[in-house]
Design goal:
Structural class: alpha/beta
Radius of gyration: 20 Å
Strand content: 15-25%
Order of helices and strands: EHEHEHEHEEHEEHEHEHEHEEHHEH
Strand order of the largest sheet: 1-3-2-4-13-5-14
Distance between the termini: 36 Å
Shape: globular
Number of strands: 14
Largest sheet: 7 strands, mixed
Length: 343
């Protein structure tokens, strides 16, 4: 059986540098604002008067807006009523900038974003997400030209609703990692590739690094026609609509658009993987003391263990659990980030 790995984060690096809009009205907080001084976790946070969580739409903007307040409430409850609110940002660069300026103290980010936040905003990773029992995921490469890029007959692995989802080159049953690289070596100069955005781990950093290693196609150098879709869903749609022959996303972003495009799993075939990639996680501002960082870590882990808190995490980013940040796993993302574009 195919092991599903999923991440809904794509780190954007476009030009917006400001917070795009408040989910809650100014001054509105999640939970009670006047926590009693004797509440241990609430008393542990003294560096700020409130905590602002910066959220970035991974796919559905309306879903983020609707789900943000319950998530803020859940963290506030875990901190014994300490004021928490969530704000939607247009992209991850905006979220990181908000942390730099002190407008946000918590960012939920993909692995490359976590590293970028470390380097640019002195952020501290505290947790990583769990999905389908795993703390890693993969880039999926997909195509509307399986005759060229499938070395074998595509295999149908229906999704939970019975929709046809085609895979080839072993991607139907592989463990997370690099798969189908023989097919990737068939990509020719000038081929149009739909990437997610210029800062996405699974949507750009990892697959572009893979092509550079295999073919010497350095990111941004014009060897291929790089198109940036802006989201994982849009990247799938670009290939579905023949705007590009090949695309990338997290595994399996086709499921996000199958309701509106029932044949997407037949028309868009997964043929290769890049990875493994550490799952997204949470970084916090270095303005928090070590004790406060520890309190926030415990609070987020408590949110993931609470029924309502877990439901809020699932609604926002399809998170099924949380563990403390794995620094060793993040080292791989650090290497990809720091070596990006090098031949």
């Amino acid at each position: 059986m195919r092991k599903k790995t999923l991440s809904t984060f794509a780190l954007a690096s476009v030009l917006s540098l400001t917070m795009a809009g408040c989910v809650a009205d100014e001054g509105e907080t999640g939970g009670e604002e006047d926590a009693e001084a004797g509440d241990s976790e609430a008393a542990a946070i003294t560096s700020v008067d409130e905590i602002v969580i910066a959220l970035v739409p991974s796919n559905d903007v309306d879903n983020i807006v609707e789900s943000a307040e319950p998530l803020a409430d859940a963290l506030s409850d875990a901190l014994e009523g300490f004021p928490v609110r969530a704000e939607e940002t247009q992209d991850y660069l905006g979220a990181i900038t908000a942390m730099q300026t002190g407008d946000a103290q918590v960012v939920m980010s993909g692995p490359v974003g976590m590293i970028q936040a470390e380097e640019q905003a002195d952020a501290v990773p505290i947790t990583q997400s769990i999905r389908y029992g795993s703390d890693v995921y993969v880039t999926q490469w997909f195509t509307n030209d399986p005759d060229t890029y499938c070395m074998d007959e595509p295999v149908d692995v229906p999704d939970d609703e019975g929709n046809t989802m085609l895979f080839c080159n072993g991607t139907d049953e592989a463990e997370p990692g690099a798969v189908g690289e023989e097919a990737l070596e068939m990509i020719e100069e000038g081929t149009t590739v739909s990437y997610v955005d210029q800062g996405s781990a699974s949507g750009y950093y990892y697959p572009a690094t893979q092509l550079n290693d295999l073919l010497g196609f350095a990111p941004g150098e014009g060897d291929i026609d790089e198109q940036f879709a802006g989201s994982h869903d849009n990247s799938v749609i670009n290939v579905y609509n023949d705007s590009a022959t090949i695309g990338t996303s997290f595994d399996d972003a086709r499921q996000n658009v199958v309701a509106e495009n029932p044949d997407v799993g037949e028309e868009v075939v997964v043929f290769a993987w890049a990875g493994p990639i550490p799952n997204d996680g949470i970084v916090v501002s270095s303005e928090f003391t070590e004790d406060e960082q520890a309190a926030l870590t415990e609070a987020w882990l408590a949110v993931a263990e609470d029924e309502d808190g877990l439901a809020a995490l699932d609604e926002v980013y399809e998170i099924e659990g949380m563990v403390e940040a794995d620094e060793e796993a993040l080292d791989g993302a650090r290497q990809v980030y720091n070596d990006f574009g090098d031949e």
